[in-house]
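Please produce the structure of this protein holding zinc ion.
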Amino acid sequence: MSKLAYFFQGNTLLLPADFPDSRIDFAVPLELAKDFRTSETFEVPAVDESKTPIRVVSVLPDTAQQAAALPENWKGIPVRQVLVTLSAKDANPARLLRACHIAQWRRESRFCGSCGGENFDIPETTERRCSRCGREEFPRICPAVIVVVTKEDKILLAHNKKFSSGLYSLIAGFNEAGESLEATVEREIFEEVNIKVGGISYIKSQAWPFSKSLMIGFKACFLSGDLRPDGVEIEDAGWFTRDNLPAVSEPGSLSRAIIDQWIKSEI
Ligand SMILES: [Zn+2]
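Below is the modeled complex.
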């Protein structure tokens, strides 16, 4: 039986054009890497109970073969969209997300950030080490908070400039160096919609490799202030009741999972 691997080009999962919709492992025979002129194949140690390494083929963007110009017998599906499919089938995306995250980081860690020497792999780990100065490098994970803010029976939802028209979600933002996650929650909410919150507590988290993130979900309750979008990131924000919700993000994201929990009064 042939070895299987995930194929990525950036945050797009590559599959043979005839890959059956019914299959949700998204693994492809490794030998198909021959279809791509420029690719890197590597193994990522598993951190789940399977202990089975995750094989990855990272198809490198080059001028001759961009995502839009895949070989005819291949198709690309954004990993974000794959999450929607996995969520509908209640399948665990952890291995796929790990593979996607590491593939992305490897493209950006070929050289030492200190001396510019070439990094080499330390077998059976994710570590890379500089061939010149010996500096160790590990996959970068950028923590970001995402917060459900409530006020009586209402939830705070905001429309970010980057969202498609009419779509709303929870307030989110990256943790700054030297800042606690609770402080990030307070700062982001105040910066983006001008209100103060309290009662901050952790709900759950989700790997989100599209910007090498870990999304960390919190809840908080409104304390004071007039709701006012910053006009920079947030174009509109409002308080919504359960029977008055706007369009929200698709299943498969932590944002949607938390909103769904709130709808069911579990938060
Ligand atoms: Zn170095």
